[in-house]
Design brief:
The chain has about 180 residues and is α/β, with parallel strands linked by helices. About 35% of the residues lie in helices and about 20% in strands. It is globular.
């Protein structure tokens, strides 16, 4: 056998062996999708939200539909909550005490001026989830808040806002914390 024929035989044997090995690998051995951590569950207490309870629930549902790393759920009656939501006659605002924790005021002043209640709730919850105001901004940016105008009823965060929240709650835990911060929209 010549050296050339021996090399061909060796290559052929390797190709056949590799092909056989690949066909014998169980289907379960294929690459599995990356494991994702369980979503961080934050509870909210809307018992003080008065006429805004439905808007708060809808605003929370928006976040639950659009991000995977965090879920907003109503707190059980009498249980503590990460987020307290109350109604008052002022302008809507949020006080974050740490990422995922704080107070949201559903201010009637903005509602009386014509702003959409679900957008307000989703926007203020966005602050609790770690997002700052983006002002001035277009209606497509949830965190543009009141600068989008009263005609804007979009309660959905844009791709950058969703990505920031996903990053904040990556790995099943809050990615950062900060001291109390008051957002007045």
């Amino acid at each position: 056998m010549t050296l050339k024929n021996a090399a061909r035989a060796l290559v052929t044997t390797l190709v056949v062996a590799l092909s056989w090995t690949l066909t014998q690998t169980p289907a379960t051995a294929t690459a599995a999708p990356a494991e994702t951590a369980a979503a961080v569950v934050l509870t909210y207490d809307a018992s003080g939200a008065e006429e805004f309870v439905d808007a708060v629930d809808s605003g929370a549902a928006v976040w639950n539909e659009t991000v995977a790393n965090v879920r907003l759920e109503p707190a059980a009656p009498g249980a503590g909550a990460n987020i307290e939501i109350v109604a008052d006659d002022g302008w809507p605002r949020a006080l974050t005490t740490s990422l995922g924790n704080g107070i949201v005021w559903m201010g009637r002043q903005a509602v009386n001026e014509g702003y959409d209640t679900v957008r307000i709730a989703a926007h203020e919850l966005g602050h609790i989830l770690g997002l700052p105001d983006i002002k001035p901004g277009p209606c497509s940016s949830l965190m543009s808040g009141s600068t989008a105008g009263t005609a804007c009823t979009n309660p959905y965060p844009n791709a950058a806002e969703r990505a920031a929240v996903e990053d904040n709650f990556a790995s099943g835990a809050a990615a950062w914390t900060h001291g109390p911060r008051l957002y007045r929209d």
